[in-house]
């Protein structure tokens, strides 16, 4: 199995995005020493989000309310809450996923990948 690897040598030479086997090793072309894999630091964030970073949705629990307007997505946290709606703060990815399943909605920004594909894309392969 191949993967993209960045290599760094003690002499300062860096080679980025080399397609290599998982157990590959590389010799430095400058000093002929063994190069080390250069690992990017892991970015860690809080698992729980506060009020300013949580996803905010407005939910109307009234069964007489039409299904397509039971959930509203305000553009900012300071938005006015319409009558009959309540604020719901989703404070983690698990809560966002649970909310998506319960209300049969999807946050396309969260599920959009770097290749330009979203959840509702149907085209696969070369067409």
What does this structure look like?
It is built from 2 helices and 6 strands, in the order ββββββαα. By secondary structure, it is of the alpha+beta class. The chain folds into 2 domains: 2-37, no CATH class; 55-111, no CATH class. A 3-stranded antiparallel β-sheet has the order 2-1-3, with no helix packed on it. The protein has a 3-stranded antiparallel β-sheet with strand order 5-4-6, covered by helices on one side.
Please tally the helical runs, counting DSSP H or I stretches of 4 or more residues: 2
Structural domain tally:
2
Topology as a string of helices (H) and strands (E): EEEEEEHH
Instruction: Give the percentage of residues in beta strands.
Output: 15-25%
Q: Helicity level, as a percent range?
A: 10-25%
Rg over C-alpha atoms, rounded to the nearest angstrom: 24 Å
- Head-to-tail CA distance between termini: 27 Å
Task: Provide the structure class.
Answer: alpha+beta
CA-based shape: elongated
Question: Order of strands in the sheet with the most strands?
Answer: 2-1-3
Q: What's the main sheet like?
A: 3 strands, antiparallel
Mean pLDDT: 82
- Per DSSP E runs of 2 or more residues, the count of β-strands stands at 6
Low-confidence segments, ≥5 residues, pLDDT <50? none
